[in-house]
Design a protein that fits this description.
heterodimer; A: 353 residues; mainly beta; Methylamine Dehydrogenase, Chain H; 4-stranded antiparallel sheet; B: 75 residues; mainly alpha; G Protein Gi Gamma 2; 55% helix; 0% strand
Chain lengths: 353, 75
Amino acid sequence: MAAQEVQPNETLASLKTESETLKTKLEEERAKLHDVELHQVAEKVEALGQFVMKTRRTLKGHGNKVLCMDWCKDKRRIVSSSQDGKVIVWDAFTTNKEHAVTMPCTWVMACAYAPSGCAVACGGLDNKCSVYPLSLDKNENLAAKKKSVAMHTNYLSACSFTNSDMQILTSSGDGTCALWDVESGQLLQSFHGHAADVLCLDLAPSETGNTFVSGGCDKKANVWDMRSGQCVQSFETHESDINSVRYYPSGDAFASGSDDATCRLYDLRADREVAIYSKESIIFGASSVDFSLSGRLLFGGYNDYTINVWDVLKGTRVSILFGHENRVSTLRVSPDGTAFCSGSWDHTLRIWA
Amino acid sequence: MKDGMANNSTASISQARKAVEQLKMEACMDRIKVSKAAADLMAYCDAHIREDPLIVPVPASDNPFREKKFFCTIL
């Protein structure tokens, strides 16, 4: 009978003790380098002026909660997905709908635009990620060309193309992330380490190499090496589910939004949390976060229907945006930073600038 | 029944072993001081803030979302 050899001194209890000891040591090492707070260093930075950000466009057409959206690289098209199973491609300048697909499932929780602008990926309760090539012929039935790429054993929570149309990264309620080849549907790499549903992911800016960050219901944010499948760094300071993660534009840090009503900034080279964006008056979870082009502003969409705008360096809130009539579920800044789009359970998307 | 129990504890031990290996690997990382990390984050902001259209607005005519007129394409 081939049972794995258990070393005499290696019981479950001893391994757990070793684990705790290593965790304590890790915290000590991190603490040694904690010589100052970011907001202290940022005291000398010029304060930001007054903000005039308003809703410039409202995209109406979804029949139920908007769950996810993504910008096309052309800075004007947007794909959005909804609880009613619809995936819509919009021209954000004119608010016209260019394409619409009805998925065979409800709760399409994830959608993404391909870098070429020629396809979109989406998925949700069907546990899959499917790719739809976008036809120039508006009358063509998009659903006919659908390609199933990813298969998870629970819901698809997020998806993103890597820097080409050829590979997709997914995260799932099954606790894993995975990298897939679009053409063959083959699993290229899987990422195990979260102890519960993975809710979000973001790819590092291409200059910084092959890593991505994921956040989950285990309150952890993990940074992964895409080639080896290894978790290279892990951060556990949130007090509840992490709904959204987004890299700082330089790639040296990332922000997270959580059900604990805070957003946080983690620096990858210091290997620790360096800022918390919170207020006593904010008691509802943050569902989605994104940075402005320079990284100075962090936009957070919250379950209390608002969008809070944070000064990333000083840690203060610079603006609060009202407009949505239900939870903000998704938020992305446009590729050239001229605007950002928010999607909400109120069935609409808003473009702010 | 004893085999079943052995399998459960084998799986837990294997998981605990992986956790220990993961922590040992994370411990080896070269970290920098927060003061240096903060300085770099600030330097990046400073270098790019002038090109950030949501902070330093571009003229309305250059931002298609702020333009008052409706965007038209010439067919």
